[in-house]
Amino acid sequence: MGRFYLIGLVVFLGIVYIGIGFGFYYYMKKKVVHGRRLIDHSVNEQTRTDKMGIGEYVTYGSMIVVAILAIIPILSKGGSGNAILARLIILPPIMALFNARKRTGRSMLVLIIAFLFFMFGMMAYLIIGIPKKAPTLKINDTKLIVTKTTVGDMMKDGFDIYIRQEKHISSKYSEILSSGEYEKYSANRSVLIKKEFKQHSYPVARSPYLLVKNGVVIGGIEVYGDKNKEVALEDCKITYFVLDQDNLPEVRKNSISYQFEGVDLFSKLTLETVRKAFGKKLWLFPSNPTSKTDLCYGIQWSTRSDLIWNEYYSYIRFDEQNDITSFELSSKIPKDN
Question: Which UniProt keywords apply (predicted)?
Fold first, then answer.
């Protein structure tokens, strides 16, 4: 119910701001001062009534753009104090544009409505934020975008899907595709995925599904269909991908490449390289590692509200030579309750 409360709050604020706008319009239209409606009265001391030139528009527009660019990082930090500071930055250039010519109550009404619209947008951003762009994993020439790419998309690019059997046979990894533990999916829309989202972490050898190409296990995956109905496996979106020490030697041997947001996962994963690629999204990194378990990069794409938007997480583990030992890319889809 939490997501519905947040959406309801944003809708309520929208109705309130619309009501305030109509209230100002009604008041200025009905209020009469010195025989004239307030909406027709002059509201500043400027006497110039000629049209503004392109140069003036460019000047004032540049000032407003600079102000907007200045307040974006301020708003991203949240807090009522930062919201007040943002208003103090954006209002002067707007008022300078407004007072550049003689204005009537109609112009003031337009400014008020624009300000209310800006306030609503700012409040909505503070409450629910904006969605994050899903990260992309490129396997050779195929792009896998979690929560976007479907199983069918991967199959069209020549990948096979193997499904873990419930009554599996414990086997060596070298026999994972031939022991009966996994069965190749025949792509006949015979497998339906239940209407639920699972957020788990698996090793490749215990993943519910394997992504395979030319007999090589590319990685383990998890999928999600729909919140209201069962969906054929082909139409399900991939929500989780894992690569680990079990299948790393095989993919290296077959010259399969992995590019994660532009980072070659088989290159030297130095802190400088990873930090340059992910910036503030990099929240976990080894500062003073005391064991191999500390050699890990944690990357997250978090939002202001995980009740509304998807969130994404990745863990890249490596050894003392900065070579990858495992890679996980997962997602968190908002729950329905």
Answer: Membrane, Transmembrane, Transmembrane helix
